[in-house]
Amino acid sequence: MREEDINSKYNITIVDTDVTFKCARETHLLEGMRSLGQKGIPSGCHGGGCGICKIKILSGRNSYITKTMSRTHISEEEEKKGIVLACRVFPKGDIQLNVVGKIKRKILSGQKIWNFS
Amino acid sequence: MSVIKIGHVNLRVLDMAAARNHYENILGLIVTDEDSEGNLYLKGWDEWEKYSVILSPSEQAGMDHIAYKVENDSDLDSYANTIQNYGIEVENLDAGTLVDCGRALRFKLPSGHIMCLYADKTVVGKSVGNVNPAPWPLDVKGVGAHWLDHCLLVCPLDPENQVNTIADNVNFLSQCLGFRLTEQALVGPDADIQAVAFLTVTNTPHDIAFVPGPTAGFHHASFYLSSWGDILKAADIMAMNKVKMDVMPTRHGITRGETIYFFDPSGNRNETFAGLGYLATPDMPVITWTEEEIPRGIFYHSGELNTAFTEVYT
Known about the structure:
The complex is a heterodimer.
Chain A: H1 3-6, E1 9-14, E2 19-24, H2 29-35, E3 54-57, E4 64-66, H3 76-80, E5 83-85, E6 89-91, E7 95-99
Parallel strand pairs in A: 1-7
Antiparallel strand pairs in A: 1-2, 3-5, 3-7, 4-6
Chain B: E1 3-13, H1 16-26, E2 30-34, E3 40-43, E4 53-57, E5 62-70, H2 73-86, E6 90-93, E7 104-108, E8 114-118, E9 148-158, E10 163-164, H3 165-177, E11 180-187, E12 193-200, E13 208-213, E14 217-225, H4 228-240, E15 245-251, E16 258-263, E17 269-274, E18 287-290, H5 294-298, H6 307-311
Parallel strand pairs in B: 1-4, 5-8, 9-13, 11-18, 14-17
Antiparallel strand pairs in B: 1-5, 2-3, 3-4, 6-7, 7-8, 9-10, 9-14, 11-12, 12-13, 15-16, 16-17
């Protein structure tokens, strides 16, 4: 691998909110976003287990690689459509994405603890 | 006849090599066995039974089952009757079904989580032995967790549809298995919905706990450390290893425990928990947290809930 490949940083864009950040190929998208203080993708376990950082990649299958994600949250069919967990996605090109849904799994919400959806 | 302690938790992991590194080298548990199906068995240095954690390869993160130990083998017959009479189906497991354990019972809590009871598990001893023991072993790895302390499970709660499996679990475990409620949070307009519950079978503040959620799940498995200094060192070791922490060292109001929350490489939450809080003898009055003080009950210093802690589970 050439040195510029190892050091490559790609432009990641959250289309709906027009947030952009740079992410290295050895860094997953969620860590890349968080380490630059950017927001937009919900942050959870960073291990592909909790499913909170679900995104849809719009830039095509060649723009990223993935590591194992819990099938509780990402079916094989979804994975093929580019619906993945941001904490298991590593860029190999510029990426455009959208966040899938909002946080739905509230277990305690302070003043409205009994009124979660 | 009694349930005497938490026995083990069986967690599902997505990447066994990464999980092994986490639990062995960072948490400091000791691998005691590995079977042909790829399950890994681990214990803390201060534990004597062969394992308190089973890691199982899976495509889905989360908890497979949680097990508690009963005092005598004959207790299993009594508990099987009690549980069945309560209206919960019980499966009798032959010796060896739970690896290195005698016969066991398996049943579902009202929340849907699978619980097992066993009376006998192979004893391999503490790392420091039983004769003139050192206070801790020199060869401990990572944060050097002493033992599996407790687990917290996410249980379905939907008061509008009269669903409260936290309260259902409390009733079942209290009536059938002798668990004692130590702390609870009561919420709702009439403060009559038991939304958070901590129960014990020992003298520690909790051996199991329940919080509400839309679906049943696994919130965390907690491992004991002996002091606040150990908690700081544990956080240092986690940072050195780039472990994802979601709650930095702080104290709980509930249980008074000193804590760090973090994730294993499959997203299952772990806790390192220090301090034994208080002595929870059977005559201790139940501690109640009101709805507006729940955030302080959970994170005593900030008094604020963080969204990852409350909404993220496997």
